[in-house]
Design a protein that fits this description.
The protein is mainly beta. The protein is 3% helix and 47% strand. The protein is built from two helices and 41 strands. Strands 27, 29, 30, 32, 37, 38, 39 and 41 form an eight-stranded antiparallel beta sheet that branches. Strands 31-40-33-34-35-36 form a six-stranded antiparallel beta sheet, with no helix packed on it. Strands 16, 17, 18, 19 and 20 form a five-stranded antiparallel beta sheet that branches. Strand 37 and strand 38 form a beta hairpin. It starts with a helix and ends with a strand.
């Protein structure tokens, strides 16, 4: 009888998609998802990441095990919450923090292209969030700590500063006080306060969000200090010899949470280099186990490093459904993975004018401009991938265009597109924009009709292909991955695979109908 009960338990767990404790694969949220912050409500976990100049802003994820995450929405979905019209490349939203207190979720962040630090709140993190309340204490990377009926804010205006605020009104209730400068690493940032065993712990990142990144920690018996630095700092870094060949680099900007089973975990950012020391996917979200004994300093994954394959005990794993390869544009709304550049002109996007198609109405704003072109994209999440789409360019004038872009920023992108020739024909064009170099690599004249565009990602190259029948694909050319990497292009974002339409003049009536989009890896 006992064996039968055990067997039934195993079968039930398998049926429900709940798996016994086992290791996991990093990153837990791949692609451009930097500056993760996490909070727990019961046995539910919620996580947010930075979004910079992309709209909607601050993606929100939910998980039961901190390993399998599902995006449930965004915090900032309205122009009144997120003004990006003045946002340059890597402007906009920096480093959000999510916290929960007495039935309300709070998200605090910085819009460096608007008025600075602000808070939004909600009862339902998958629903609408409030309008922003703006905060007096400046700087970046703000965070909240709740204790009793008090709410404290820390941020980095000049060192790590603390004040008490009203999180619903934004009113600052005490003067700002500097509480720590870090251990001497450059660019101290990402402060978070926790309380454990009567100690206030202050976690920060130092060293710059690049190869020298690290996580350090200090503690105090009182929240406003003085804070004592951990003698074993940094508690997480890949800058040292023991991790110099690790396929994950730039680890830092972390947040810690205690799980519902009592274990401790850290979410953090890092990046995966390719083509030497270059990375293109942006800074991604990783997960590490934390040992935190009573009255002791936290130890991250035993030795302060992490790996792609984490062979550690976990919470019972509850796998989410695999994302479908194809987006068929049959739904009335785009999925949460799709974003616009800055505040979009929604009149230029339609999912109902032609059923089963995404219609992009061409704008004279180009991908090279710091503005909002007719563009909608999703993150590149894997070094090796294949993205394919089918489109028809309609009612175009000469030199109107629509296609696919691998977009890092206005100065660095690769474009494979259909160009209207104005003589009943069209051409297939492969172009690159690399700083001041703007060059057409290849142009092929084709008859008008549906065109299939494909991009294949690899460690060293992107390969661009096209087809007129979706059966036989022809290579249009290859481009070097490192030439649009973060190390070349600069900034804090990662590659987007974008669909776009550009008009040669403001009077053009051109539009592109995209039938579907596939992303496979």
């Amino acid at each position: 009888m006992r064996n039968l009960v055990l067997l039934l338990g195993v079968l039930l767990g398998t049926f429900m998609g709940i798996h016994a404790q086992e290791g996991y694969q990093n990153p837990v949220i791949p692609g451009f998802h930097p500056d993760p912050s996490v909070c727990r409500v019961g046995d539910n976990y919620y996580l947010v990441t930075s979004s910079f100049e992309f709209f909607p802003g601050v993606p929100v994820f939910h998980s039961k095990d901190m390993i399998h995450w599902e995006q449930i929405g965004h915090c900032l979905t309205k122009p009144s919450q997120l003004k990006l019209d003045k946002s340059g490349a890597s402007g906009g939203i920096y480093a959000p923090t999510i916290r929960y207190n007495n039935g309300t979720f709070y998200m605090i962040t910085t819009n460096v292209s608007d008025k600075g630090n602000f808070i939004v709140h909600t009862k339902d993190p998958a629903g609408e969030w409030s309008e922003p309340v703006w905060l007096k204490q400046g700087g970046i990377d703000p965070s909240l700590y709740f204790e009793g009926d008090k709410c404290y804010m820390v941020s980095i205006p000049n060192g790590i500063c603390l004040c008490e605020i009203n999180p619903l009104t934004g009113e600052q209730l005490t003067e700002s006080k500097k509480i720590w400068n870090g251990t001497g690493g450059r660019y101290p940032e990402a402060p978070h306060i926790y309380k454990k065993d009567g100690w206030y712990y202050l976690l920060i990142a130092e060293g710059g969000t690049e190869y020298g990144h690290m996580v350090t920690i200090a503690r105090s018996r009182t929240i406003d200090g003085p804070y004592e630095s951990n003698p074993a700092n940094p508690i997480l870094t890949h800058r040292n010899e023991n991790a110099q060949n690790n396929p994950i680099q730039g680890t830092g900007h972390a947040d810690i949470v205690q799980a519902h089973d009592g274990s401790w975990w850290m979410v953090l950012l890092g990046f995966r280099p390719q083509s030497g020391t270059h990375h293109l996917l942006g800074r991604e979200t990783f997960l590490a186990s934390v040992r935190w004994d009573q009255n002791a300093w936290p130890v991250v994954n035993g030795n302060g490093t992490i790996s792609l394959q984490m062979d550690v005990p976990t919470l019972p794993q509850q796998k989410t459904a695999d994302k479908p390869v194809r987006t068929d544009f049959n739904e009335p709304y785009l999925g949460f993975e799709w974003n616009y550049l800055r505040n979009p002109d929604q009149k230029r996007y339609s999912l109902d004018e032609r059923k089963g198609f995404l219609r992009l109405k061409a704008s004279s704003v180009t991908l090279d401009q710091v503005a909002s072109p007719t563009f909608v994209g999703r993150r590149q999440e894997h070094i090796a991938f294949t993205a394919t789409t089918a489109l028809e360019l309609q009612q175009g004038s000469a030199n109107d265009e629509a296609g696919v872009t691998l977009y890092m920023n206005p100065d660095f992108h690769y474009d494979l597109y259909c160009r209207q020739l104005g003589n009943g024909k069209q051409s297939l064009v492969l172009r690159y924009r690399l700083g001041l170099m703007n060059h057409i690599e290849k142009e092929i004249t084709l008859p008008k009709g549906k065109l299939y565009l494909r991009v294949k990602g690899g460690n060293e190259h992107y390969t661009f292909l096209y087809s007129t029948d979706n059966v036989t694909f022809h290579e249009a050319g290859k481009m070097d991955t490192k030439l649009i990497s973060t190390e070349t292009a600069g900034g804090f974002t990662g590659i987007y695979i974008g669909l776009y339409a550009t008009a040669s003049s403001s009077s053009s009536k051109a539009y592109a109908d995209f039938d579907w989009f596939d992303y496979a890896y």
